[in-house]
């Protein structure tokens, strides 16, 4: 057998042997990339539902988004309205971002009355200490509220924009975030336990 045929044979054998490994790596990378961005994408979907409904309400009055102010609160666990999670807080952050990008006016409820400067830690203005808030009054047109439910495979968010002076629901939207290993820690409370997390960890199936 000519020398070049031997070389080609060796190269072909090496490619066949390494192909499964490369395929597994590509599958792993693809699977990992699919788990990134679920919260922002779900927030965008929910935000669009809310925005579309708000636009239908505003159309007859000829009001525009920049004339509507919104205050955003954190979604709570449906079974206990005193409980929430880092995932729920992140959902609020993403929805606030969406509303601002759409052109709505946002009111920051957590703004403190003064900047707290702490050595070796930084400068802080946001706070959840009611004694340090600039104001506890809400003077916006609407307030974002919501609940969420946790299953073994997903977290279902139901969000609403409520007219501030009344209890009227101006818009309602919902979305589902798949539970992945990446998102599972965001369902834990401050103590590190996970009473609201699925009992079984699940992963999305590969395409």
Can you characterise this structure?
It is a single chain. The chain is of the alpha/beta class. It is built from three helices and eight strands, in the order ααββαββββββ. Strands 1, 2, 3, 6, 7 and 8 form a six-stranded mixed sheet that branches. A two-stranded antiparallel sheet has the order 4-5. Strand 6 and strand 7 (154-163) form a beta hairpin.
Task: Produce a short descriptive summary.
The chain is an alpha/beta fold. It has 3 helices and 8 strands; from the N terminus they run H-H-E-E-H-E-E-E-E-E-E.
Number of separate strands: 8
Largest sheet: 6 strands, mixed
Ranges with pLDDT <50 over ≥5 residues?
Answer: 14-36, 191-195, 199-207
Global geometry: globular
SSE topology:
Elements: H1 3-34, H2 38-58, E1 69-72, E2 76-77, H3 86-102, E3 105-107, E4 111-118, E5 122-126, E6 142-150, E7 154-163, E8 169-178
Helix pairs in contact: 2-3
Task: Give short descriptive properties of this protein.
6-stranded mixed sheet; two-stranded antiparallel sheet; alpha/beta
